[in-house]
């Protein structure tokens, strides 16, 4: 104990400089005080150990620490612009985290919190920064953090039925989405998921269920070869879903695209006819509402007509793009979506909710039930609560343990409203056009993928100083440049592969992004380009 | 504005009685102040709207509110014993939550937080209470809440690779579990999931992959009829998994159990031989480490021998029961588990982490990769980061959007350590034996399912006053009694169906539970039993 008290005295004399070090200092002090308190307690208390739960022994100390952690969280968000987007995890931190021995003994709450502040929080993925424009990763909100905190407090299993508030929160969110997307209003026909990947698996499972009535009992062996159709721009999660469902990659018939990266619907029709002629059974068309590469929208009106004519399921992958329904200027892009049999999208993308929050909506009330209800399969009946069509969520999903991820979605929508969220989508699209205009103004030769419909821009430098017929050379230059920008900590693009060439890809989804961020991004990009080009010329 | 100020004045004069109403009152005051501030701002500010992110306009007010919410959260946990376990959602609250119109306009943070305190927090599922002993639902910890708060702050997509701290946190958790369960230490052979259901789907997908090498490309049509084996006590998620994977319920061969609810391994061997003789292909044996009904453990040593001999995959469903590895007295129950090809279990059960946190471990390093890696399928290669075998998690799971649920697990293990968590398991088992002893001492005729191995006890009252040969009558009596107890708000059992009879089922998993809770539970039960019995006698 004396050693500890000595350490406290030393710590008390330590100079402090900034906000970050003050929270760390406080937390270290708490750790000491916690340890001293524990020693004091253990020297006096020798009662029954059964009564030692995992709750704090000293609630008032725990409250202190919890409030410090909340401040660390809010500071982290508030000062996000003051820090680099990310920084590599140093090798010693990696070792401390990854190579730690199995923790056998208890440590104080403060001690573990201190670890979080020292080893975890300083090395984030980076996507809450306003200039993280890689892939489609958003940033969340303060409200989202509070909602998640409350969810973990109530800690419900949202697999069951109506006897708690979170059940209705999830039903409300689903109902709102049905109204937004123009789906008929009904209960038990939508549910929150980890993300679009899982919602896609569920959608295709429902489509499979409609195509093969006895698939749950009999499986696919000896069944017909089902076929799904999507454009070559479709997201990889589709193929993954078909594989998981036992349909195999070969069940995915990829259809070529037009110059605007949209599925060629005449090719689609021919493909369906040819496949039928071969004895294959078309069961699902997948339409893109915002492709991952370029943000292209398939013609969903035309796809829904084909789906109806061919009597196959229409699934729409609207992971982030379907959110344009909130933006009056761009709503027309998803015309026809209201005719889909299923829609998969994410709240943790353009709705700005924290991970994870995806969603599946099915058009017809019974499609999730008939695919996932356990009673359906075992007893031949679907259990229904008498009031209000209140089916437990276990009957609608593969998951039997579920948190209430609806609360953060409900919170975000309640706090910000669909109008403001829609406005932020328009802002991101405007920022992307501004990005485009800066690239166009540049003196360099830059190949830009067009059209730039939404919030995504793909471009590659094709320097006259290099042999631009050497595609590998130019690919490498651009991939390395993207890497340089990522490592700058100032801006963060990702890369894409379009028409067999590598591009730098920027996708603006942050509610924090501004035109000034575009200026900073492009300035950083051009500066690093010149350095990278000079290097390329040297090595050539 | 004047109306608002008038309302504030009235509110200021309101009398207050308890902690709960104080937080509500504060939050209402904040709401008023927020609205007034907004009015003040909007009357002066007419600048560019692009700069209005979804971040708080007034950070200091937002901090106030956030700290109030944290206090509400901590109060909720600290005073859990002072409230009923749950209460039904009143119809007007249900309407407010479920029938709310799509939120178009923004509301203040305080306003939405106030809704949470008024409509959400008072109507929890109930499982954080020390006498919620229905199903297997635990309660979480203060540390778990803080960890989730920090996770939502960093808001990572943990689908990717090594460039952030949370990646190593998840790798550490997986590594600790491999050590605990005696799996060979290797990277990329485990991952966190939403729960055991998803981990089961993934495990059986990996088993299917080993049985049919080209299943990802070619699917199951025209393939062999695979067969999985489990006891009749196996959890329903198994059948759901086989259905999703396209193998169908008929791929599940249920094997009968002995008097201790353990799979009859001689029957299993015969079933495998018979199925092979019919041309079916056995591909997976599922062993139970803690069945959901009675907490029975299959003989995993014997199962692993059979699996090796028959060259089929051994999957262990250890949803909650496998956690006994932490309890030296009961560790022997999972002997043989270290020979499994896959293990699925939950951290949100006996590890006391908040929902959702499940886990899959596979024995062999490549099994997840070969099942889920996208490059594997598309390019025929698996991308590998050069350092440290750091595969991105997307290559190991069906999910492409993933939160860092590892942080709460890491936090819980770091804070409490495996020894204390093991001790709490022993405590729950002791409490269950104490529960048993109280039932045995009761003057009533009670049929108790034996053995009571773990933390689960199933019992039914068989009153001499009623016709006990009328099974439906006795079933109903016990189901209604369980319902009475649930609605008392004092104790919370669930029910089970064992040997075609209805039982009341108690499963003690809370770190907060004590022997005194058992006293209160049994006392409530017996009191309500006498009332229910009197009612039954009247209606007879």
Could you give the distance between the termini of chain A?
A: 66 Å
User: How does the major sheet of chain A shape up?
Assistant: 7 strands, mixed
Largest protein interface, residues of each chain: A-B, 164 and 165 residues
Q: Any guess at the CATH architecture of the largest domain in chain A?
A: 3-Layer(aba) Sandwich
State the CATH class of the largest domain in chain A: Alpha Beta
At a glance:
The structure is a homodimer of 540-residue chains. With 540 residues, chain A is α/β, with parallel strands linked by helices.
Mind explaining what this structure looks like?
Chains A, B: InterPro entries: Aromatic_deC (IPR010977), PyrdxlP-dep_de-COase (IPR002129), PyrdxlP-dep_Trfase (IPR015424), PyrdxlP-dep_Trfase_major (IPR015421), Pyridoxal-P_BS (IPR021115). Chains A, B: Its cofactor is pyridoxal 5'-phosphate. Chains A, B: Belongs to the group II decarboxylase family. The structure is a homodimer of 540-residue chains. By secondary structure, the first copy, chain A, is α/β, with parallel strands linked by helices. The first copy, chain A, folds into three domains: 2-42 and 57-115, no CATH class; 190-377, Aspartate Aminotransferase, domain 2 (3-Layer(aba) Sandwich); 417-539, Aspartate Aminotransferase, domain 1 (Alpha-Beta Complex). In chain A, 46% of the residues lie in helices and 11% in strands. Chain A is built from 17 helices and eleven strands. The first copy, chain A, has helices at residues 2-12, 19-44, 59-78, 91-98, 109-120, 142-154, 165-181, 196-211, 215-218, 236-244, 265-277, 300-310, 367-372, 374-378, 406-441, 471-488, 515-539; strands at 190-193, 226-231, 252-255, 281-288, 313-317, 342-346, 358-362, 446-448, 456-461, 494-498, 501-507. In chain A, the strands form two sheets. A seven-stranded mixed beta sheet of chain A has the order 1-7-6-5-4-2-3, sandwiched between helices. The longest helix of chain A is centred in the C-terminal third of the chain and has 36 residues, at 406-441. The radius of gyration of chain A is 27 Å and the shape is globular. The N and C termini of chain A lie far apart (66 Å). In chain A, 55% of the residues are buried. The model of chain A is unreliable at 376-387 (pLDDT under 50). At the A-B interface, helix 3, helix 4, helix 5, helix 6 and helix 7 of A face helix 3, helix 4, helix 5, helix 6 and helix 7 of B.
């Amino acid at each position: 104990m004396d050693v500890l008290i000595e350490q406290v005295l030393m710590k008390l004399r330590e100079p402090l400089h900034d906000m970050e070090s003050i929270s760390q200092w406080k937390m270290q002090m708490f750790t000491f005080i916690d340890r001293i308190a524990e020693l004091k307690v253990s020297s006096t208390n020798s009662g029954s150990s059964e009564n030692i739960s995992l709750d704090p022994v000293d609630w008032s100390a725990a409250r202190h620490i919890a409030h410090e952690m909340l401040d660390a969280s809010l500071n982290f968000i508030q000062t996000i612009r003051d820090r680099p987007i990310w920084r590599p995890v140093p090798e010693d931190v990696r070792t401390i985290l990854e190579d730690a021995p199995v923790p056998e003994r208890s440590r104080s709450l403060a001690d573990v919190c201190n670890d979080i502040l020292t080893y975890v929080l300083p090395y984030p993925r980076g996507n809450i920064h306003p200039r993280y424009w890689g892939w489609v990763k958003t940033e969340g909100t303060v409200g989202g953090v509070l909602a998640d905190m409350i969810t973990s407090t109530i800690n419900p299993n949202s697999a069951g039925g109506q006897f708690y508030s979170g059940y209705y929160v999830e039903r409300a969110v689903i109902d709102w989405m049905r109204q937004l997307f123009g789906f008929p209003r009904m209960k038990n026909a939508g549910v929150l998921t980890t993300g679009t990947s899982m919602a896609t698996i569920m959608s295709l499972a429902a489509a499979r269920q409609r195509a093969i009535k006895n698939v749950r009992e009999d499986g696919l062996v000896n069944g017909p070869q089902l076929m799904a159709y999507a454009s070559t721009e479709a997201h990889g999660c589709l193929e993954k879903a078909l594989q998981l469902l036992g349909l195999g990659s070969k069940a995915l018939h990829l259809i070529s695209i037009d110059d605007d990266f949209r599925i060629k619907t005449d090719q689609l029709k021919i493909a369906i006819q040819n496949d039928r002629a071969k004895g294959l059974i078309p069961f699902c068309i997948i339409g893109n509402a915002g492709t991952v590469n370029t943000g292209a929208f398939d013609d969903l009106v035309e796809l829904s007509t084909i789906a109806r004519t061919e009597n196959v399921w229409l699934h729409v992958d609207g992971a982030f793009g379907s959110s344009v329904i909130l933006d009056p200027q761009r709503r027309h892009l998803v015309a026809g979506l209201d005719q889909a049999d299923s829609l998969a999208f994410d709240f943790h993308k353009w709705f700005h909710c924290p991970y994870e929050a995806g969603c599946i909506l099915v058009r017809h009330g019974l499609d999730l039930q008939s695919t996932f209800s356990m009673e359906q399969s075992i007893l031949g009946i679907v259990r229904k609560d008498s009031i209000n069509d209140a089916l437990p969520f276990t009957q609608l999903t593969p998951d039997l343990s579920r948190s209430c991820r609806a609360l953060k979605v409900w919170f975000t929508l309640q706090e910000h409203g669909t109008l403001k969220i829609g406005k932020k989508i328009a802002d991101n699209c405007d920022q992307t056009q501004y990005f485009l205009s800066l690239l166009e103004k540049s003196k360099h030769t830059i190949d830009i993928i067009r059209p730039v419909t939404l919030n995504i821009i793909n471009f590659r430098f094709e320097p006259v100083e290099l042999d631009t017929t050497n595609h590998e050379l130019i690919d490498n230059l651009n991939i390395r440049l993207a890497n340089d920008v990522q490592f700058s900590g100032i801006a963060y693009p990702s890369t894409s592969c379009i028409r067999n060439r590598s591009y730098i890809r920027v996708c603006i989804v942050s509610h924090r992004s501004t035109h000034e961020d575009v200026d900073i991004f492009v300035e950083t990009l051009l500066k690093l380009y010149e350095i990278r080009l000079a290097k390329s010329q040297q090595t050539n």
